[in-house]
Amino acid sequence: MLRTETITMRFGGLTAVDQASLAVRKGSITGLIGPNGAGKTTMFAVIAGFLQPTGGQVLWQGNDITRLKPHQRAQLGIARTFQIVQPFQGLNVLENITVGSYLRHPHTDDAIAKARAVAERVGLGGELEQPASNLTVAGRKRLELARALATEPKLLLLDEVLAGLNPSEIRDIIPVIRAIRDDGVTIFMIEHVMQAVMNLCEEVYVLAQGQMIAEGSPAAVCNDAGVIEAYLGKGAAARIANLGGAHA
């Protein structure tokens, strides 16, 4: 469904993403992980059209969309959430979600009906009249998810949608994400919560210092020596292997 080919993104003398390629299969939940500052959110911004890459291509269902604007990509079916959640503070929950549903439903009654259905889907059905500013962190995360989902995407880009949640909140939202995929929405997610990555993702890409260093199943990636060293430092893989040998 989605491919990036040798994406490079430079900001002056800083190369945030360097020749990064990946593929997201239709109907999958695919993960993008890596240490802080690896270039993950920059990669998402390129895919969603908020940044024009210095080099490389973004391909959507085989077509080059590298130069399309974000709203044009949204029309094609690409939606994203943001790492820093910023609801429209002057609007209530229903109105926030309706902003997204207007993309496909220009008539107000239809847009509101769609927003209500999406709110129920993500667990916000009882909060519709609440000001968005009154929501908890978990509620705001669900609202961010709902607003993107209301655009009726084919591909949903989730940027750390679980960040800041406690273990029980993470446990509660994992089935919501899985159900969205089961309803036909392909999901590509950046996540640091490895519990979620292991439970949700079928394939994972690892970005470190702007470069793709690994790809594969979550279990394979977590045991990759290069990935371990990217997170824990040079020599960490060997130290862990030695500890394993000692325990054996």
Automatic annotation (TrEMBL):
<dbReference type="Pfam" id="PF12399">
    <property type="entry name" value="BCA_ABC_TP_C"/>
</dbReference>
<keyword id="KW-0813">Transport</keyword>
<keyword id="KW-0067">ATP-binding</keyword>
<dbReference type="InterPro" id="IPR003439">
    <property type="entry name" value="ABC_transporter-like_ATP-bd"/>
</dbReference>
<feature type="domain" description="ABC transporter">
    <location>
        <begin position="2"/>
        <end position="234"/>
    </location>
</feature>
<dbReference type="InterPro" id="IPR003593">
    <property type="entry name" value="AAA+_ATPase"/>
</dbReference>
<dbReference type="InterPro" id="IPR032823">
    <property type="entry name" value="BCA_ABC_TP_C"/>
</dbReference>
<dbReference type="InterPro" id="IPR051120">
    <property type="entry name" value="ABC_AA/LPS_Transport"/>
</dbReference>
<keyword id="KW-0547">Nucleotide-binding</keyword>
<protein>
    <submittedName>
        <fullName>ABC transporter ATP-binding protein</fullName>
    </submittedName>
</protein>
<dbReference type="GO" id="GO:0005524">
    <property type="term" value="F:ATP binding"/>
</dbReference>
<dbReference type="Pfam" id="PF00005">
    <property type="entry name" value="ABC_tran"/>
</dbReference>
<dbReference type="InterPro" id="IPR027417">
    <property type="entry name" value="P-loop_NTPase"/>
</dbReference>
